[in-house]
Amino acid sequence: MTTSLVSRKTGPWIFRGRSANEFYQDMLATIRLEGERASPRGLPTTELLHALTRIEDPRRRVLTQYGRGLNPFFNLAESLWILQGRSDADWICFFNSQLRKFLDPPLRNFHGAYGERLRRWPRVTRLGLGRGQDIRLHDQLASCFHTLSDGTESRQAVMVLWNPVADGHVRLTLDRPCNVAVTFKVRAGRLWMSV
After folding, report:
1. Cα–Cα distance between 63 and 147 in angstroms, integer?
2. What is the DSSP annotation of 65-131?
3. For residue range 151-190, what is the model confidence (pLDDT) as tens digits?
4. I want to staple 157 with a disulfide (CB 3.0 to 4.6 A). Which of 15, 58, 102, 144 is the partner?
5. What is the spatial distance between Cα 180 and Cα 164, in angstroms, rounded to a whole number?
6. Cβ partners under 8 Å of residue 155, min gap 6
7. How far is CA 110 from CA 34, 54, 113, 156, in A?
C-alpha cells in the first residue's frame, strides 16, 4: 500500500495513493479515531481539519469500493454537465434524483452549479446582480488552458467557484458551493490540479 499518513491531532493529514481506493479505508479509520465533531448546516458530522488527499493517477480517481453505491451513469453525466457549463436541474436529476434536495424553489437551476461557474463566470444576470449592465461571461477553463499552453511554469491558472456577492451569508440557498477554487500547474511535464 502506498498510503502515507502524518498523524497529528491538528493535521496536516495526508492520504495518498495511485487511486482513491488505496487510502479510503485508512482515511475512514483516521476520521473515526482522530476526527472532531462539527455540525455544518445543522448536520452532525466528524471531520479532519487540514486533510490532503493526493491521487497520483487521475484515471483512477473514482472511488469504486464495495458498499459505496457507485452510479457510473451519474458520474459520467455529471462530468459532461459540468464541462458543458450547465446549471439546469431536470437533465442532471434524471441521473440522480437526490440532487433535488439542494434545489432552491421555485428555480429550475442549481445555485452552486460548478459548470456554470467555471464556463460562464460570473453568471450574475440570473442572480439579479447585473441587471442593466453589459456583463461579459468568462470561460475560466479556457483561460486556464491558454495560461498553461504557453509553456511557462505559471501559478496563475486559477478557477474561482465561490462568489462572495452571490454566496455570502445573506444569500439563503440550499446549494452553496463546497469548493472555493481550482488551481492548475504544469511541472516536469505533468499537470497538477488542486481543489
Report:
1. 31
2. -TTS---HHHHHHHHHHHHTT--BHHHHHHH-GGGGGGPPTT-SB-TT-HHHHHHSBT-TTTTTSST
3. 789 999 999 999 888 888 888 889 999 899 999 999 998 8
4. 144
5. 10
6. 183, 185
7. 34, 29, 5, 28
Q: Give tens-digit pLDDT for 20-51.
A: 999 999 999 999 999 999 998 788 999 998 89
Residue pair 75/20 in contact by the 8 Å Cβ criterion: no
Which active-site residues does the annotation give?
178
- 64 Cβ contact partners less than 8 Å away, ≥ 6 residues apart: 21, 70
Does the predicted TM-score (pTM) go above 0.90? no
Q: How far apart are CA 86 and CA 82, in angstroms?
A: 6
Cell of 103: 434545489
Contact (CB, 8 A) for 109 and 120:
no
